Amino acid sequence: MVNIYLVRWSQQSKSDLREIFNYVLKTEKSREKADYVVSGIKQKVNEIKLFPEKHTKEFLDIPESMRYALKWSYKILFTVDEKYVNIVRIFHTAQNPEKLCIK
Length: 103
Fold this sequence. Notes:
- The protein is of the alpha+beta class.
- It has one domain (6-94): RelE-like (YaeB-like fold), CATH 3.30.2310.
- 35% of the residues lie in helices and 24% in strands.
- It has two helices and four strands, in the order βααβββ.
- The chain has helices at 11-28, 31-48; strands spanning 6-9, 67-71, 74-80, 84-92.
- A hairpin with a 2-residue loop joins strand 2 and strand 3.
- Helix 1 runs antiparallel to helix 2.
- The radius of gyration is 14 Å and the shape is globular.
């Protein structure tokens, strides 16, 4: 039997998603495109909750239990515990990860 985890979004990850939406909206001048990007990221999160352990552990100098998944050029950082996939941050891979201050 497959263990399906519940998803918890950190305040920061919710803020990241809003910033992504606003950035795409501003640069592409298309609400449809912004909705598409955010929906795609959320879809990836729904996939993560099925088999979170299959995703690669993060190699940056952050907690050892951190894993990540990619959707297009967006990196979704998360941790896993008994019941939850905890979405920690979401950012474009062109960003400098050191500025993200993940501890």
